[in-house]
Amino acid sequence: MKNVVWVFFLVLGIFSCKEKQLTPEEIQPLVGKWKLDAIEQAGDAKKWESITSKDGYVFEIRYDGVILDANGLPACCVPTYLVYQGNKFTIEPKEKLAPNPSCALVFCLACDTWYLEIENGQLITNLCNSGGRNRFTRL
Questions:
Q1: Which of 10, 39, 85, 128 has minimal Cβ neighbours within 10 Å of its Cβ?
Q2: 34 backbone dihedrals φ, ψ, rounded to 5°
Q3: CA 106 to chain centre
Q4: What span, in angstroms and rounded, lies between the C-alpha atoms of 92 and 20?
């Protein structure tokens, strides 16, 4: 009988240990259009290198976490999750997305999570936790 009780508590403990999921309200600081203005290469040198205006691409984070390109179409090679303030947000479109024909021409590497933070009003991204970071300014 004791074993049955221990198994019950073990199963209960395993299923109750879920990581915190962010809500759309909690990602509001990320919502908006962003333009790349600097990159930080992976490695020991933590130094931002500015990007010329013509080379800075634009993307948008929608209220439901969906990533859109500069034309308002779903961006290619987007993640399934955003991690913001150490918490994971699952991207689930709340409205229908138009197809983006340019995505058929792109080969995407698997990267299901983007790590995001806000520093001094700028968005810092670390895609796939790769070490290199990008800095974006809000438009």
A1: 10
A2: -130, 140
A3: 19
A4: 16
Torsion angles phi and psi, residue 60, rounded to 5: -130, 140
C-beta of residue 104 within 8 angstroms of C-beta of residue 76:
no
pLDDT surpassing 70 at residue 12: no
Whether the CB-CB separation of 72 and 33 falls below 8 Å is answered with no
57-85 pLDDT, tens digit per residue, is 999 999 999 999 999 999 999 999 999 99
Convert the pLDDT of each residue in 16-59 to its tens digit.
444 456 677 889 999 999 999 999 988 767 799 999 988 889 99
Q: For 71, how many CA atoms within 13 A lie in the half-sphere containing its CB?
A: 10
**Residues whose CB is less than 8 angstroms from the CB of residue 62 and which lie 6 or more positions away in sequence, other chains included:** 31, 68
The DSSP output letter for 53 is G
Q: Which residue has the tokens 């790769």?
A: 130
pLDDT for position 20: 54
